[in-house]
Amino acid sequence: MWWRCRGVLLFGLCLLALQCPAWGKDAVEQQGDVLKIALPAIALGATLFYEEDYDGSIQWFQAFVTSEATVYALKKVVDKERPNGNCCSAFPSGHASMAFMGAAFIQRRYGWGYGVPAYLAAAYVGYTRIESDKHDTLDVAAGALIGILSSYYFVEPYQGIQITPYAAGGSYGLMLSGRW
User: Fold this and answer.
1) Residues forming a β-bridge with 160
2) Which residues form the Phosphatidic acid phosphatase type 2/haloperoxidase domain (predicted)?
């Protein structure tokens, strides 16, 4: 089991190393660029090195493709100018979508113990996009929502008990589910 955890860590670190050349960007923006790749990469790495089957990998690809295709289509249709005055493609934030897709995948598949740090890292990615003047809050929130919804639609818990918040028909609560 220890070699699988080490494999996931190594996979994530290799992807981080590939993303860290000097881009001429400030440190906050560069950190967001790295984390937007690292979160989904760690999620995919966990399915490849930790799980005994490849159901998680298939679910990851479904969530990733859905999220990215939705973002791409909306960017083409909406054609919103960025806050820094650069041309178009501001709505929604692709960085936020990718980071939150990875975080939501981790949370849905492996639980809140892993999900909370992943969501904090994804929220930081959103912050970096606003701080670097690439997006406003609406762009980031829309990207985050797309990423989360794509994972919630396709991803099932790996094992054990999963607690999920829900809101439907005017009622709110927590749903408890598990595999036995």
Assistant:
1) 179
2) 88-154
Tens-level pLDDT at each residue, the chain (180 residues)? 434 444 454 455 445 544 554 445 688 788 888 888 989 998 898 888 877 778 889 999 999 999 999 999 999 999 888 888 777 788 999 999 999 999 999 999 888 888 889 999 999 999 998 888 889 899 999 999 999 999 999 988 887 555 556 677 777 665 555 554
H/E stretch holding 43: helix 27-49
Pairwise CA distance, residues 176 & 141, whole Å: 27
> 167: exposed, middle or buried (C-beta count within 10 Å: 0-12, 13-18, 19+)?
exposed
CATH architecture observed for domain 2-179 = Up-down Bundle (1.20)
Cβ 105 vs Cβ 155: under 8 Å: yes
pTM value is 0.76
Give the H/E segment covering residue 98.
helix 94-110
